TrEMBL record:
Keywords annotated in UniProt: DNA-binding, Phosphoprotein, Transcription, Transcription regulation
CDD domains: trans_reg_C
Name of the protein in question: Stage 0 sporulation protein A homolog
Stored Pfam families: Response_reg, Trans_reg_C
Length: 226
């Protein structure tokens, strides 16, 4: 499982990374909100551990971004003085928090508890929808067992839609939560191109899409399976 850790204290970050990797996890570390936003836009993680207080902002902002991409597990790290503010983080969708200083065994126990509340689909990193299978550990997409080559932006768009099944995502909503690999925001015309290219790759009949449907005047939707 690939874990994302946001922590600006080098001693804590290095120690946690070492301990988690010894438990068999893959760990990516960021030390600022800016670096975190870039990392989560370019990679697929299955678990997020976020410090609350960063030199350039708050873990709240990163949590908000994560939750727009899907229902992924989030644990906050907080100093005792921040504890009363964790309620805000829980309201944003975070699953738990742990107060510094803490023991790694305590964090691991909290992580396992949170993971038990998530479906097997989330834990094994595989998202299945009709004839599509997305392996979020390897960022690869398959249809009927054959790999579909997607660009980073096409993959990102597909992941956002699949993680919001049954919800109409407006063009503005997608534009707010998707950007290119250089960190530049995507404009409306470019979004249209990405949707068209993605449909050409995953749909049997792109002109009559079965996966990514257009809701006229509202946006796009991946419907719940009937």
């Amino acid at each position: 499982m690939h874990i994302f850790l946001l922590e600006d204290d080098d001693a804590i970050a290095i120690g946690l990374k070492y301990s988690l990797e010894n438990e068999g996890y893959q760990v990516t570390v960021a030390r600022t909100v800016k670096d975190a936003m870039k990392a989560i836009s370019e990679n697929a993680f299955l678990f997020y551990i976020l410090d609350l207080t960063l030199p350039d902002g708050s873990g709240y902002d990163v949590c908000k971004k994560i939750k727009t991409m899907g229902d992924y597990p989030v644990i906050f790290l907080t100093v005792l003085d921040d504890e009363v503010n964790v309620v805000m983080g829980l309201d944003l969708g975070a699953d738990d928090y742990i107060t510094k200083p803490f023991r790694v065994k305590e964090l691991l126990a909290r992580m396992k508890s949170v993971l038990r509340r998530y479906s097997k689909e989330t834990m094994d990193g595989i998202i299945r929808y009709r004839e599509l299978e997305v392996n979020t550990n390897t960022a690869k997409v398959y249809k009927r067992g054959e790999e579909i080559e997607l660009t980073a932006m096409e993959y990102r768009l597909l992941l956002i839609l699949l993680n919001n099944k049954g919800i109409v995502l407006s063009r503005n909503n997608l534009l707010e939560n998707i950007w290119d690999v250089d960190g530049n925001f995507v404009n409306d015309n470019t979004l249209t191109v990405y949707v068209k290219r993605l449909r050409n790759k995953i749909e049997d009949a792109p002109m009559c899409p079965a996966y990514i449907k257009t809701v006229r005047g509202k946006g796009y939707i991946v419907e719940h399976e009937s």
